[in-house]
# Entry
Amino acid sequence: IKPDYLGKRVLVTAGATIENIDGVRFISNRSSGKMGIAIADAAYLRGAEVTLVAARTSAPIPKYITTVRAETTAEMYDEVMRRVADNDIIIKAAAPADYTPETSNGNKIKSDKLMLNLVKTKDIAKAVGEVKGDRKLIIFCAETERLIEHAKAKLSAKNADMIIANDVTQKGAGFDTDTNIVSVIERSGVIDELSIMPKTKLADIILDKILKL
# Structure
């Protein structure tokens, strides 16, 4: 392992945020946190000072990684934004919920029919992109169609430096798997379409590419 991240401060997000409907139910997604945790671990082993902001995860987090828990998208937004200035690289590998119930009941709702009004959550990546300055912002997107087109649009909209895009309909890609199949798109327009590989290996490839940005 080469210590090429010595002196660099890296903020990584991982996992799925949850948005409460009531005291026992919530909205979330299938993210396991495996990709973000693999990146945080690889960066640490390469010498970086790493902070992991983790939502709900099903993968183990090494005890030596400084970890901050954030349950909801709003909590993750706050934890990330207060740390942007202290980091050189921000890697948004988490899957924050895009919507949250307009109202939440602290007690368990008992009803034959339940209607939910959902509102958009805060866009963490966009907020980082607006204030990042010379810092590097790397984001992820999970799509089910028109992968490159949607990824390029997101890369531009969030003012990111690189986006890692994966089609979650492909076998061996996406959420809660140990492998991934991604296309890495840089702001310069360079696209690298990678074949299936373990997320641990992909983590190091992503870190290699960040150093060249």
Observations:
- The chain is about 25% helix and 25% strand.
- The chain has a mean pLDDT of 95.
- The longest helix spans residues 199-211.
